[in-house]
Amino acid sequence: MTRMDPANPCKDTRQTLPDETRDAAISRLYDVALAPDRYEALLDLWEDAVRPLRGQADLDAPRLLEDPLIAGHFERASAFLDRVETVGSASELRDILRPFGRMSAFLLDASLTVCAGNAAALTVSGLKEGATLSDLRVMPEDIDAISKAARNVLQSPQQDAVVLRVRSVEKNHYVILRLQLCKLADGTPLVLAASNDIYFSEDSQEILQRAFNLTNAEAGVLLGLVKCGSVSDIAEKRGRSVDTIRAQIKAIMSKTEAHSQVELVRLALSVVDMAGMTLENMPGPRQVSRGYATLEPSVFHSLRTPDGRQLDYLRLGDQTGRPILFLPLDYGLVRWPASAEAEARRLGLRIIVPVRAGFGASDPLPRSTDYDDTATTDCLQILDAENVDRCPIISLGGDSFYAMQLALRSPETITGLICCAGTLPMTRREQYERMEKWHRFIIAGAKYTPHLLPFMVKAGFLLARRIGKQGFVHAVYGKCPADVETFESPEVFEAMVTGSEVALSETHSAHDAFVRMLTGRFLEDWSADVEALRGQLPVIFLNGLQDPQVPPATLDEFRATYDWIEYHVYEDAGQLIFFRHWRDVLDKVQQLLS
């Protein structure tokens, strides 16, 4: 579908998705809002839908899908993702059930025996560990249907989720039961069963009213639907006619942009279950970066910026040695492998690592503040606090952009750049299309659909929390054997898991700052900035041929365009090249220092 410019009927001002594809994408959005581990299914559907539109877009003004309906659903799904509880239970089974809160949820093993249930399952459904499906308080004829569906979920590769409607014995109303396949860390398959049989608190109606901007009466009707009441039952309980209730339901669906009562109930269930538990209200991270095996603790240092913000940074290696500024990528990889930190200390190198605004305990920036400009200013303030007159920079990945901004802003301070897995301005459509799918999904999303990016990033962060950083890294870098192998090195694993605590921990998520970096100048054409550094200072790039963001063809284009940069290319490395070849990096740093 396209929208025409009235002044020029031949010119498309917006491209959107076919109705069928749009509806499928919206459905996947709410699946992810309820279960972030279904993120990759959304990724695949979205990529298939948007790729043809990218091919028709103007790369200089590439905003796609300026569709209020799609944008509204992305915003609402993004708000739902805010309403999650931190994962911190020692029990893996409890962790799976934890996000459901007041919604009755339980886990079935291969014998269809309940191996775990949340408090709501015990209170509302009467289920406890060791119970069987026959103990479920539904009509006998529904037990067989649930049993058959659960076995299909466990055994059929084509059907990993199913929704059933069963009748409650005690309340004599219908209950929606969703069965979904899930796997433990060791691969053991289980069936996660969640129903809309909920323990409702007194504030549930108020929660629905605020979430969807409903009248008090409409919120009451919606709560009745959530409890699986029929239209006639709701009318009788509220003392209204059936026609009045139907009119109110129609108004509710208009306000929520739901296409059906099933979707409407799903939206409401999400809000009720997740209300009050927001990422924004989580306490901040620890004040010491502490490893669990070989990494020594490192204290976060703080300063106050002129605008009153707290700004943190780490000091690795020799605490009084020769300074090097390290820019740790938007994943917040602020720690080095233990051997690398020890070598930096032996060489007398003081590694200064900024914790950007919104990461760790560094205060976030107001929406009106330019993130890129402030991030550059913050780094210079840290160097000033450390009494650094001159130093080189080591950067990871896309932080080559910030390294160059610092060199332009303060040429008297920055003496050279070493960009590990460095990237340069992407000025060709093919450079986005060549990326591996996870990087393309996020980076092309930032380029073409930035207004939809908050949900994409937030869901990705929550997926990482749900499946663990190891599982997430394997998903993102799965087609890059060198990066997977690098990550599995015990020292690298510890450094990346520990360092990325400033980006994602049990108590903190830097998804908002991540989005602001991606939607800044990084994806614009900053070729003039790069050219302005020609002949001004040494610029060294270390790139791996297995980089999922900068594959060989893109790297060749960079080398042809900016042939004055010194390139070192490694066949056995990808985007995590610094963690694999840090010794080479330190050799080149010493050359710059000498």
Automatic annotation (TrEMBL):
GO biological process: regulation of DNA-templated transcription
SUPFAM superfamilies: alpha/beta-Hydrolases, C-terminal effector domain of the bipartite response regulators
GO molecular function: DNA binding
Domain HTH luxR-type: from-to ranges: 211-268
Coiled-coil features, chain-numbered ranges: none
Record Gene3D superfamilies: alpha/beta hydrolase (3.40.50.1820), Winged helix-like DNA-binding domain superfamily/Winged helix DNA-binding domain (1.10.10.10)
Classification via InterPro entries: AB_hydrolase_fold (IPR029058), Sig_transdc_resp-reg_C-effctor (IPR016032), Tscrpt_reg_LuxR_C (IPR000792), WH-like_DNA-bd_sf (IPR036388)
This protein's name: Pimeloyl-ACP methyl ester carboxylesterase
Organism whose genome encodes this protein: Roseovarius pacificus
